[in-house]
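Bug #77: duplicate submission created two jobs. Keeping one. Sequence:
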Amino acid sequence: MRSDPTGSGSGGPDPAATSAGSGPPASGGMVAADDLVRARKQLLDGGSRTRRLDTVALRQALVDLHEFWLTTKGAELGIKPDSGFAIVAVGGLGRRELLPYSDLDLVLLHDDLDPAVVSEVADRLWYPLWDAHIKLDHSVRTVPQALQVASSDLTAALGLLEARHIAGDVELSNLLIGGVRRQWRTGIRSRFDELVEQSRARWARSGEIAHRAEPDIKNGRGGLRDIQLLSALAIAQLTDAVPGLGPQTPGGGLAFAHERLLDVRTELHRVAGRARDQLRAQDADEIGAALRIGDRFDLARMLSDSARTISYSVDVGLRTAGNALPRRGLSRLRRVPVRRPLDEGVVEHAGEVVLARDAKPNKDPGLIMRVAAAAAQTGMPISASTLNRLSDSAPELREPWPKEALDDLLVLLGSGRNTIAVIEALDRTGLWGRLLPEWGAIRDLPPRDAVHTWTVDRHLVETAAYASGFTTRVSRPDLLVLGALLHDIGKGRGGDHSLVGAELANQIGNRLGLWPSDVAVLSAMVRYHLLLPETATRRDLDDPATVRMVAEALDGDTVVLELLYALAEADSLATGPGVWGDWKSSLIRELVRRCRMVMAGEQLPTPDPIDPEHAALAEDGGVHVLLQPAEGAHTYTVTVVAPDTLGLLSDAAGVLALHSLRVLSASLGSHRGAAVNSFTVAPRFGAPPQAGLLRQELIRAIAGELDLVAMLEEKEQQALAEQALDRGTEGVPVQYAQAPPRIIWFDTPVEGQVILELRAEDRLGLLCRLASVLERHGADIRWARVATLGASVVDAFCLHLGDTDSRVTREEFEEAMLAVVPAPRPRKSGDAVDGATEGGTG
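Kept job's structure:
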C-alpha cells in the first residue's frame, strides 16, 4: 500500500498513513459507500430512465458524483471550513478526468491536529470506500509533511501538482497547492534531468502509441502522461502548456488530441469493465463504433494522429524548457548565443534553426524549404516559433517549384535520420501538407499487413532515410530519394496503389519542376517498386522469360533498374525487422545482374560544349571572371577563363567556397590553351561578392599567396566546433556521410585517358579539395562535369594519366580522393556493405 497520493493501485487501511501509534478501529458502525457504488453503476449501465452517456458527459458525471459524495461525507465528519481538515483530490478526480474505473486518489490534510482525532476522521472517511470495494489511494498529512514528500519523490510531486480542493478548509488546501507549485518552480533546475530520464524510461517501457498495434493510451509516448508532463513544465514556467502548434495543425491541435485520447481510454474502461490502459486488438472495433470513429483501422489512424501531435508538443516543450535552464559544460562559456547564418534568411540561435531578423516569410515562398534543409543538414530542431510564423505567413510555392526549392527538398531527403524529425515537425504544424497536398490521404494511415512497423506516411519517410544511405550506388541520387518518399503515395485511395501512385508521382514531379524525362523515371519507380522483390521471390530466375519480362517492363532502362534495386532494399529495411535478409538480397541481386546482361550498357559521360563568347575571351588571353544571374532567384553563373595551368580548377573552386558560394553544377573545358570553367553557384546567405573581388582572389591563389585547402579546413572545423558548442556537446567535431563514397572508372578509346566518376556527399569546398588531389598526383584534367543533387555530388573527370602504371595510379587516386570526402558513418552490426570502387568500360 502506498501512502503518497499518486499511487496507481488500491488498498485497505494503512496505519502509517494516519497517525503514529494508533491503529485503525474496526469498521463497525460505519456505513459502506453503497450509494456511491449504485450511482456509479447506474451511470455506466444506463437504463430506462438514464440514457447511455457519451464519454465527455460520463467523465463529468463521475466527477460530480464523487465530489458530491465526498463533500457530503466530509460535512458529516465535520470536515468544514475552518475545521483544520481538508479533502484534496489528485489524479483523475484532481484533473476532472475521472474515468469509470479510475482509482480515487485523495489526500486528507490536517492542520497538525490531535493524532487521535485525525485517526478517527481518516478511518471514518476511508472505511466506507474500502468496504464498498472502491479502489482508493490515500494519504493523511499536514502541509509540511506533504511538501516534504513532494521534495523527495518526483512521482509524488507530479501528482500533487494536479491537486484540487474538494471539501473542508480551503485555505489549508491552498497552502498545499500553492506550496507545491512554488517548490516545483524553484526546484525544477535540479529536477529537470530526472524528469526527462523518468519520461524516457516510461517511453522505453511502453513504446510509441502511434506505431503500436496494442498501444498503452496512458503511459505510451504521445499518451496522457505526456499531457501531464507538459502541464508540469508549464507550472514550472519553462514553457507554454500548448507549445509549438499553430492553427493548421492536422487533427485540431493538442487540446483536441488530449480529448480524443481521454475518450478512447474512457470507452476502454467501459468495454473492459475494469481499469485498463492498453487498447487490445479485440476491443478496437467496439470502441471505434462506440465513439463513432469507424472500425479498428479508423481508430488506429485517429490514435496515431493524436499521439504524434502530443509527441511533437512534448519534444518542443522539453527543448524549450531545457533552453530556459542554465547550460552545462563548455556551452556555459557562451553567455549570449550568437546568430550564425545557415542560409538565406535562416540562422542558428541557441541550438535551434530560426528565421533571420530581416527574413520576410510572407514574401519568400522558398523559405520553408530552406529552413527544413538547414535543420536536416545541421541536425538541429526548427524553433517552434519559426514553424508557427511560417505556418501563418509563408505563401504557397509557385508551380513548378523554383529549382532552389527542389534542391532544398533533396537536401532534406538526403540527410538520413535527421530527415524524420524535420518532416514530423513540418507535418505536425501543417506545413508538410501544404508542400505535398497528396500526403493527407496517407497521413497516419495504419498498415493492413502486420509485418509493417510504421504508419504509411512514416514508412515513406523511413524509406527515404534508408535510401539516403544508398545514394552513391546510383547515378541519380535525387530520383532515388524522391522515389523512396513517394513509392506508397497511392495507398488509402482504393485500387492498385502502384498504379494510383504512378499517376500521383507524375503530378508531383511536374509540380516540383522535374524535367519530363525525370518525371517519367519517377513515375516508373513508383509503378514498379514491387517488381524486383515480387519477381525475385516468386518467379523462377533460371527461366529466360522471367528476366525478359522485367527488362521489357522497364523498357530496357538501366537507370530505372538500379534505382529500383536500391529502393527495394530501402523499402524492405523501412518495413520492419527481418524483412530484408540474405535470402531476399541474394535473389534480387541475381535478378538485377541478369537484367543488366540483357539491357544495354551505360553511356560514357561527355563534356559540355563551350559558349562562343567564352571561347573569344580565351583567345584574348588573361584572367577573366564573369558573374551573371542564373535562372533561379538565388543562383548565379560564375565563368572563369584563364591560362590552363596546373591547379587552376582547385584555385577557382576554393575561392568560390571561401566566399560561401555553393557549387551546384560545373562544366570544365578548354579552348586554345585556356581553361573555360563555368560554375552554377548559390550563396549560402546574402548576395554574392563582386566579380572583381573574385578575380583578385583567384590571381592571388594562382600566384601561390593563398593556401586554399588549409583555409577551407579551418573554416569548416570552426563551423562544426561552434555548432557542437551551441548544442552543449564536447569533443572533436567529425563530419559523417549518410552513404559511403563510390568511385567508378571508365576506360576510353584514347590511350592513357580515363574517366573517373565520384559519387559522394557534399562538403565545404569539396571540388577544390578533389581538384587539388588530382593535380597533386599529376593528372591532367581534360574536362569535367560536376553536379550537386541535394546533399550528393556526382562528379565526372576526364583524366590523362600519361605513361604511368594505371593500376597503381588508380589505387593512389582512390585512396587520396576518399580521404577528402565525408567519411561514412561507423557501421553497426548487420548493416549492408557497399563497395567503394568499381570498374567500367567505355
